[in-house]
Amino acid sequence: MFDRGEYNCTDRWCAQGDHISSVRAVKQDNNPPRAQLFERAGFSGKKTELHDDIPNLMSRYNLNRVSSIRVMGGTWVAYQEPNYRGAHYLLEKKDYNSFSDWGAQNSTIGSIRRVRFS
């Protein structure tokens, strides 16, 4: 996820090689940020509602496994590890019934934050 600007190839984003294999635009949603995280698939189990960035889901909500997500406002990025590290998944306004719906191979989510548009 890049903000507008110029980027030199550094280890931060170019560690997999010297090229970019795909790019996609992010839909801007101007609704207030709101997402619900569910412990189990199908929007069941413990529910946690978010309106702001959470750098560590485990320490804040005792939650590190998320099997379904309902994004009701804003655009979000979920990260597999705390502090916005590891594999990341773009979450636009939509219901994600299972972690495979957002492209993950398991339900581990360590942090999540809103995409800010300027």
UniProtKB/TrEMBL annotation:
Keywords: Eye lens protein, Repeat. PROSITE patterns: CRYSTALLIN_BETA_GAMMA (PS50915). One of its GO terms (molecular function) is structural constituent of eye lens. One of its GO terms (biological process) is visual perception. The keyword Repeat applies. Residues 33-73, 74-116 form the Beta/gamma crystallin 'Greek key' domain. The keyword Repeat applies. InterPro entries: Beta/Gamma-Crystallin, Beta/gamma_crystallin. Belongs to the beta/gamma-crystallin family. PANTHER family: BETA/GAMMA CRYSTALLIN, BETAGAMMAX-CRYSTALLIN. This is Gamma-crystallin N-B-like. It comes from Cyprinus carpio (Common carp).
